[in-house]
Amino acid sequence: MLKIRNPRGDRSVLVRELLPEATEPGVREAFWDEEAGALRVPLAPASQASRG
């Protein structure tokens, strides 16, 4: 679930049904891809993504 808090309240989007079955839950570090105009979220948890 992606969540964001804004002045009008919390907003969330459930994306579980779009992810590969083996994707484990956890905190991710998302980033904005300006060229694609999209929010990118690596599938590996932040602690594993930084290890390469």
Approximately what portion of the residues adopt beta-strand conformation? 25-35%
Q: How many individual β-strands? A: 4
For this entry, what is the oligomeric state of its chains?
A: single chain
Roughly how many Å apart are the termini?
A: 24 Å
Biggest sheet strand order reads 1-2
> What does the overall shape look like?
globular
Helical percentage: under 10%
Give a short account of the largest sheet. 2 strands, antiparallel
Structural class: mainly beta
Number of helices: 1
- Mean pLDDT value: 78
Q: How do the helices and strands line up, and which of them pair or pack?
A:
Layout: E1 2-6, E2 9-13, E3 31-33, E4 38-40, H1 46-49
Antiparallel strand pairs: 1-2, 3-4
